[in-house]
Amino acid sequence: MGNPALDAAFEGGAAFVPYLAAGDPDFDSSLEYVEALERGGADVIELGLPFSEPVAEGPTIQEAVVRSLEGGMTPDRFFEFVEALDVEVPLVCMTYYNLIYRYGDEEGPRPFVEKAAEVGLSGFVVPDLPAEEADPLREACDEFGLDLVFIVAPTTEGDRLDRIMERVSGYVYVQARLGVTGAQDDVSGQTESSLDRLAEYDVPKAVGFGIKTGDHAERIVAAGADGIIVGSALVDIVAEGHEDDEDAETVAARLEEKARELKEGAERGLAQRAPEAERT
Amino acid sequence: MSETTFDGKFGDYGGQYVPEALMPAIEELNDAYERYVLGNEDGFMDEFRRRLRDFGGRPTPTQHAERLSERYGREVYLKREDLLHGGAHKLNNALGQVLLAKYMGKERIVAETGAGQHGTATAMAAAHLDMPCEVYMGERDINRQRPNVFRMRLNGSEVNPVTVGRGTLKEAISETMRDWATNVEDTHYVIGSVVGPHPFPAMVRDFQSVISEEARAQMREKTDGLPDSVLACAGGGSNTMGAFAEFVDDDGVGLYAVEAGGSSLDVDEEAGVAPNSASLSTGSEGVLHGARTKLLQDRDGQIMESHSVSSGLDYAGVGPELAHLVDEGRVTAVNVDDDAALTAFHRLSQLEGVIPALETAHAFAYLEENHDELGETVLVNVSGRGDKDLESVIEETSKRDIDIAPDMDAFAGGF
């Protein structure tokens, strides 16, 4: 089950997984922004395919979704976007189930997954698809060799956790706190207990929701995460650039700098953990 | 009662498509639904029925509409949910869910509202049962439905304006889901219709099925039989399922879900706009707000902005059970446009002395246009009263040439 690209991306132990909405605020600028994230140290990139009703997102990403849709983003344009990108790191598509379900001539997720494999995507994160409803997508992912990442929330325990972990591949997205996406001023205290609950499962654990600074990244990796997922703090940079009418090159440079700060923070966190790892 | 599902599916429709953070709350709710609602544990249903009677004013009457009967040459009966406390069927569900939240030990209620009737019912139920309540409402709907906004505030609820998108029910539901995902441990989300993830569609239907349970008995008493047809307007579909539930097994009773045809049944794919809210009549299958159902969406699966002169019907989706019953051929989905609904609003007000909600007026517009096909005895569910719609009706009527409407200039202060 799954795809070797994501396994390799997590081998270093402190993977940096940034998110941007594809096409925000326009197709060409967005290509530059995603490429800047790789230069800044991204190990995996989550690319958002915007859905009109993003119920799991906070205001920052909701606004990014609106900008991208207004710029003409569609599932077919998204696949063109992926093909046009000049990056080496694996790409994961983050979107809502209706877009996957509706794509192509037949009902169900298979045509979307087939096309995703054709353009070189490595996997999916689908925030409104719990394990109970995920079997058709899981089967299609297995058929085409893609990963299906699930989100584990602070409220996920017991049988539910087992059900998710039976179906997950690539990495598990550990939601650091309850609520919707959005940058926070501090790291959630729920992170460590979530990582403890997941310790026995043999799949990389990437923590997301609320990470904003290199310091946050450091603390989360030091606490045992295999990676960090950062969305809103990066989308904020895109939004500010758009509002201030800055050129794409300037915004891309700022994204690269922010990416480097986050990646370096994650590596510092790993270094703090290393002596302990040697002892055990 | 129509079929009760334990896996949350109605044919291919239904299910549970929500963020993972909400799944434990949905499992907890499902457990509470099975124990308290289906199993009457701790006498929950007895208390619910008692409060519906004493606080809500049930049973509501089924009234013979004499002038409509004369006009159409058949016997027309009105199930008067407009006489329920608060002026709409919405209290049945709101009271049930707020009471269930209390039984579950929840400490806070959130709800969304379109026309404001569900928000008002939830605010009343929350005040009655001493629960703090916050209601999300699209900014556009706040402007269309000010009396209901005042009523919610008077009952002690917070009303939170939603400004994203077009500022209607669709956006308000998404925003309430976000609040619920953030505060899921102590909060219950009172969904306002037979939509959303399982168990909401089944549970809301069960709370609303008191409408058809009473109507069935009252029709037997008054006519010695069952109606040939039952008509109810359909947005999300809670009054529709409530009015139909106890008749689903009666094959001789025709069930008509009357949707909002808006200004046109055509869609503008480029603009992402459907100038109607007729998801049963014109929609396609997809996944929105927790369930697989019929939706107004473009070819890529993006949800369209819907339209209706009635904000209570202005929603791009519909309950999954209703979608299933339409596919099965048990329910007939029909629609009427804004003009016909407004005209019907004036007609019912004048002929029967009943000022209906604009939602309800759609059912009466269908009766006007198609009474020949509906048999000898017709039951129409008067889902709510129209006081909340008066500002909209004055404004919308002024734009049109409705010959039976009163002189609209008089409403500008020239009585």
Q: How would you portray this structure in words?
A:
The complex is a heterodimer of chains A (280) and B (415). By secondary structure, chain A is of the alpha/beta class. Chain A is 50% helix and 12% strand. Chain A is built from 12 helices and 9 strands. Chain A has a 9-stranded parallel beta sheet with strand order 5-4-3-2-1-9-8-7-6. The model of chain A has no long low-confidence stretch (mean pLDDT 94). Chain B is globular, with a radius of gyration of 20 Å. Chain A binds chain B through residues 51-58, 62, 66, 69, 74-76, 96-99, 101-103, 107, 127-130, 132-133, 150-157, 160, 164, 175, 178-180, and chain B through 15-21, 23-25, 27, 164-165, 170, 174, 177-178, 181-185, 272, 285-290, 295, 297, 299-303.
* End-to-end gap of chain A: 30 Å
- SSE-based structural type of chain A: alpha/beta
Structural class of the helix and strand makeup of chain B? alpha/beta
- Mind telling me the C-alpha Rg of chain B? 20 Å
Number of strands of chain B: 14
Cα Rg of chain A: 17 Å
Helix content of chain B: 40-55%
* Widest sheet, order of strands of chain B: 3-4-14-9-10-13
| Principal-axes shape call of chain A | globular
The count of strands of chain A amounts to 9
Low-pLDDT regions of chain B? none
